[in-house]
Write the structure tokens for this entry.
Amino acid sequence: MLLKKSAFLSVFLMIALLFVFSFSALAQDGEVEVFSWWTGGGEEEGLNALIELYNEEYPDVEFINATVAGGAGSNAKAVLKTRMVGGNPPDSFQVHGGAELIDTYVKTGMMQPITGLLEEWGVKDKFNQQILELSSYEGEIYAVPVNVHRGNVLFYNMEVLNEHGIDAPTNMYDFINTLKELDEAGVVPLALGDKNKWTATHVFEAVMVGTLGADKYNSLWEGSTSLDDPGIYQAFAYFNEMMNYVNEDHAGNTWQDASRMVYDGEAAFNIMGDWAEGYFKSNMGWTPGEDFGWMEVPGTRGTFMVVNDTFGLPEGAPNPENAKRWLKTIASREGQDTFNPIKGSIPARVDGDKSKYDPYLTDSMEDFASNTLTPSIAHGSAAPEGFITALNDNINSLITDNDVDRAVERFKQDFEEYVE
Amino acid sequence: MKRKNEERLVSLAILSPTIIAIGIFVYGFIGRTVQISILDWNNFGNFIRKAKHYIGLKNYIGLFEEARFQTDLWNTLYFTLFFILGCLTIGIILSLILNNKPKGGYLFQNLFLFPMALSFVVTGTVWRWFFSPGRVGSNPHGINLLFQQLGLDNLQWGWFTSTSSVFNFNLALIAVIVAAVWQYSGYTMAMWLAGLRGIDEQLIEAARIDGASKWQIFSKILFPMQIPITLSAVIVLAHVSLKAFALIYSMTGSGPNNVTDIPAVYMFEATFRSNRYSTGSAIAIVLLIMVGVLIIPYLLHSYKEE
């Protein structure tokens, strides 16, 4: 008797719940689920501003903000892959433009081309064409680039440099001499935090784009630069040399810890993507150009290492119409100028309103318009994921065993296995 | 007879959902993992196409040739060894002290058990702060700072960022082992304490009258009587040590030159970071075999006893 009663009760409850859920869904003009890893610092505020903009335009669509925390999407990517392979894609998701998008999702037929949509909205020629190229495959565009970060930036504590009478160096040779000078003066010359291995790879790729030059670097990924090019060996050699001048406890630190050392005046230089600028500015309250300076990594003038986030339209998205509205929002000038100043990045469009950006970002926008763009390895744009983790491991070992020859050999092997 | 058959049928019917679920979700998936480990799903394309191209044991051979995996195996060996030894020694000492019912013993008994209620992620994060070395000498952090304040500057070192090793034992693991022992020695203590309370006082009384020293009482009476309990503790601790993924992942990551890497972390990276699904599966199977080597003899042993 008791059993029957409770069984009846639970059936009743289930039916009641069903009604509640279906009614709440009826009240809306459907929903849109957008997947990203924007959970920290300015990213979250930027995303919220975009969601607000979206809801102003489409008030009846329920926006589902599906985020998975973890720096540079380290955890989110695994979750996303599971969903995509399991046939349960979100309506749109964040992915780095370039190999990460093309190799993983486009070549496997999981994305819909959106070239037609961009033309229909009249925005296709408003984007930087090199950036659109990164998100294209066989003549079709597969994602809307939202923002651009620069990878090859050298930040420095201006007070520390002044104190030791040092000018910011312009080539790799001078840079290493400067590091040496600082080391003798008892300052940590270069701050590094490579608990998560990508930060070391991030430094390495900036060195390599300098030794190879932007053009050879770019054609490396198309297979037309020889792996025996002296620039590759030189990159490993310079990188190895630089590692003599980093803080001892680098392996226990994150990139924020490393930037923090520059802020504290403990270290002079830090090579990081320009999200570090946002960190200095909003987290630490520093003024760009007064407290900290920046320049391209020595030897990379005229080169802009691109780290960029895009959103696309997966095959089988449950709400394709609402997803297209989302893409339209983020492709618009207003959308890009809403998100980027908050996130601390620059728009992928060429017509951004410069008055909305701080001195660093306007400087970066000028470089972006005139420089040769190069895709980042560490941030997924240049090479398949298998190669990235292999390179991470390779660089990680090099820092400990300082064996440049072995590292170069392994680089070639990994390149042949994963890239070609 | 008929009744007995009926009973058997009913019990089978009741058990069948569990049997089916375990069959699919445990053994079925193990089988699937074995299958993937002998395919060449080492890039996303092959994985999506579900290409059935068997390459035999190539993934396993490649794995054992890799420097990283070799380091992982050494790390697992030493971590397991010192983790179990540490938990046993400290746990047994604590239980012996508490067994004498000192003042406030009840409080401490609970206090030592508390760390077990934490997840490895919490332990890892907190101990990362403690052991984060800072700049040794000039600007130390955490425990190094404590040493500096106490005037013990010589004891400062790189902790989990150190890359030195002795007989393939990476010294960086010491920090991780301390954290793990801190969390699990309370467990050995509780097991032992329960066992000790079950031992007849008269036995120890008699030994004392015969003039046995404290050490003799421990080594000749208490320890032999506690061997079954110790063995269970060792088995549990050994498999905890193979599951230390969360601790390592949150505390140190794989470390410089993989000094604190373990197979589980490598498995995660291979599978979910670099799309090398077959390599990841091969690591999973190696781990499974390692756990099996530890647990199956124990299971057979206790089955026989029953």
Summary: Confidence is low (pLDDT under 50) at residues 22-27 of chain A. The interface with chain B takes residues 74, 77-78, 81, 85, 103-104, 107-108, 188, 194-197, 247-253, 266, 384-386, 388-390, 393, 396-397, 399-401, 418 of chain A (CB under 8 Å). The domain at 27-149+309-373 of chain A is CATH 3.40.190.10 (D-Maltodextrin-Binding Protein; domain 2). DSSP finds 18 helices and 13 strands in chain A.
